[in-house]
Amino acid sequence: MVTVAERVREKVETAARWEKENPGLSWCSPEYSEDEGKIYILNEMLDSDVYRSLGRCSMLIYQDFLRKRIMRRIKRNKKAVWVIENNGKIVYPYLEAEEKGFSNDQFRNAIDELQGKGFIDIKHLGKGGRKPAEGTGDVSKYWIDDRWKKYGNEDFKPPRKPRKKDKRNGRGWALYHSKKK
Fold first, then answer.
1. pTM here?
2. What does the pLDDT look like over 119-173, one tens digit per residue?
3. Around Cβ 114, how many Cβ atoms within 10 Å?
């Protein structure tokens, strides 16, 4: 039986041999700093049919949502768990999506798909204002959800606050844009 000390010694020797054969290279890539943000996606999610059924824009926008979350490690019942500290306070305005190359329609459809499949939920439905840092507009605030785990089952719960679709033909902005044509 091989002891732990022997396995460690073997790994150290393998590393030394590799460094000798590859001068100037390092085990860790120097171009990525430890401070650089990382996105962690569970294998369970990557393997799920619902994640794989997401459209390209929806998947990219969901990754942006994951980038905006702030993770904190806390102790619960003598066990350390990771929680999203800013869940329900995540802001992703249309202007930011536009700067990343998404049209308003692509962004809206991606939000609808992500919400419908249980990846995000709307905590507060804004009125289309600016980001709070740039002004005092009323923006939507999002919640990263795990309802996707039950998508397709009878247990799946619909979104808490679905986005209301504007069907006011002949009123408001629909009337304004119809006159411009």
1. 0.69
2. 999 988 887 655 555 555 778 899 999 999 999 888 888 888 777 666 666 566 6
3. 25
> Residue 9 corresponds to which tokens in the numbers above?
């010694």
Q: Is residue 128 part of a domain?
A: yes
3-state DSSP helix/strand/coil % of the chain, to nearest 5: 40, 15, 50
CB-neighbour burial class of residue 3 (10 A; exposed 0-12, middle 13-18, buried 19+): exposed
Q: Would residue 131 count as lying in a domain?
A: yes
The answer to which of 20-29, 53-62, 89-98, 103-112 has the lowest mean pLDDT is 20-29
Confidence of residue 112 (pLDDT cuts 50, 70, 90): very high
Structure tokens at 155: 């247990």
* Sequence-separated (6 or more) residues with CB below 8 Å from residue 159: 115, 116, 118, 121, 122
Domain of 50 in residue numbering reads as 35-166
Instruction: Centre a 10 Å sphere on the Cβ of residue 93 and count the other Cβ atoms it contains.
Output: 19
Question: DSSP string spanning 135-170?
Answer: S-----EEEE--GGGGTTSTTPPPPSSPPPP---TT
Number of structural domains, the chain?
A: 1
Is 42 inside any structural domain?
yes
Task: Give a yes or no: residue 146 inside a domain.
Answer: yes
